Amino acid sequence: MHRSFKDRQRVILKDGTVLTIVKFLGSGGQGEVYEVATPQARLALKWYFVQTGTDKQKNTIKKLVSTGKPDERYLWPIALAEVHGKKSFGYLMPLRPPQFSNIVDLMKRRIEPSFDAVVTACIQLADSFHKLHEKALCYRDISFGNFFFHGRTGDILICDNDNVTHTAIQDAGVLGTPRFMAPEIVRGDIKPNIQSDLFSLSVLIFYMLMMHHPLEGKQEASIKCFDLPAMTKLYGEQPIFIFDPLNRSNRPLPGYHDNALAFWPIYTEKVRQTFIKTFTQGLRMPSVRPSEKIWRDILIDLKNSIVVCDCGMENFYDIDKLKQGVLNKCWACGSLLKPASRIKIENEVIVLNMGTKLYGHHLNKYEKYKFKHILAEVIPHPIQRDMMGLKNLSRQTWNIKTKTGKSYAIDFGKSFTIEDGTVVDFGETSGQIRKG
How far apart are CA 411 and CA 178, in angstroms? Predict the structure, then answer.
């Protein structure tokens, strides 16, 4: 395969920037990607093939550079890259840190992250696309091939941003990735827009939670030749959600679609109902598809509801059922989950497991959905191992009032025992603990 640059080659861009080609990272339909070294940092260089390096693409890169990234999670174009004597061009962007994996690794089970990490990744995806769409920008090609995922923390990075355009632009060449495109895009009715982005985002979230596609059930299994007409019918002309409550004709088949059958019952009713609305009404009416903000809030609730069974497996407490006195069964061992300690902060209920963390969106709303600054953490009691405490990692002094009326302050680095009825004044908000 011909490559535009050789390893260790020294390249001088037209603007005077000196690059050293460290290594070839890969290639795709549009061009090649290299790791490069500058005097200041290591970066990634995407270099277009001659046939894809059009004037329109160059103008798109220039606009993206001047617009700036919507969020820190985007590996956004930093600068246009042109070399004297070469017809094509490229652009520089941040380099993916080595601890981030492609989401394809998750789909193929090459990594086994926790439920907490997967849900955190979904929250960050929804939040990042909310920030993109706020700028009236359309991604156009949401799929699990365009994201990187930290298997331990759930942090995400979004790549391939050179196809992002303003929503008013209707002649962009990229329509999306098959299996992620909205039905109206598959049929060729319209060009990609924010509503089709929302559909693709919902497919991606479904994939990450269920490890399966929302439209691939009995119909997909019966296809003998998975060619373009078959795909157009399955995803565009006659799409049927595999868990449509009113149409069972496309249910997942045991032995063939086992991931979908296993994961669907694990999640809360709110999550299931949102998927049902998205992939039934939302197949025909783009206006009813849940926004990124709706997904973000639902997924925050899902993350808050994680409870660890005695068998050691993560489950999701269905808080609405808990209010009715109904307890979930553990999906792994089948035993009833014990009533968990939890704290209610305004409208959020957070289950308190050993190691549960509280963030800015829980306590003071100053830093939404970042998951970097931990403001509180559940820790073991130093003496009584069956008890837990909540440690203050914020810069605020907390004021505690117990069920018996005792009051005291908790400074940074200190903790208090988690007891039923305790009220915590965090400074900008307060919460009440329920135990059992």
Answer: 54
Residues 6+ apart with CB under 8 A from 87: 50, 53
Structure tokens at 290: 């849940």
Two structure tokens written together for 381? 């009691």
The reply to whether 273 and 365 lie within a common domain is: no
Q: How many domains does the chain have?
A: 3
| Res 126: pLDDT | 97
Residue 244's contacts (CB-CB under 8 Å, 6 or more residues apart) are 250, 276, 279, 280
Q: Is 238 helix (H, G, I), strand (E, B) or coil?
A: coil
Least confident of 15-19, 114-118, 236-240, 323-327: 323-327
pLDDT, position 370: 75
CA distance 66 to 291: 27
Residue 410 belongs to what domain range?
Answer: 341-434
Instruction: Give Cβ neighbours of residue 193 (< 8 Å, ≥ 6 apart).
Output: 138, 167
Q: Is 343 helix (H, G, I), strand (E, B) or coil?
A: strand
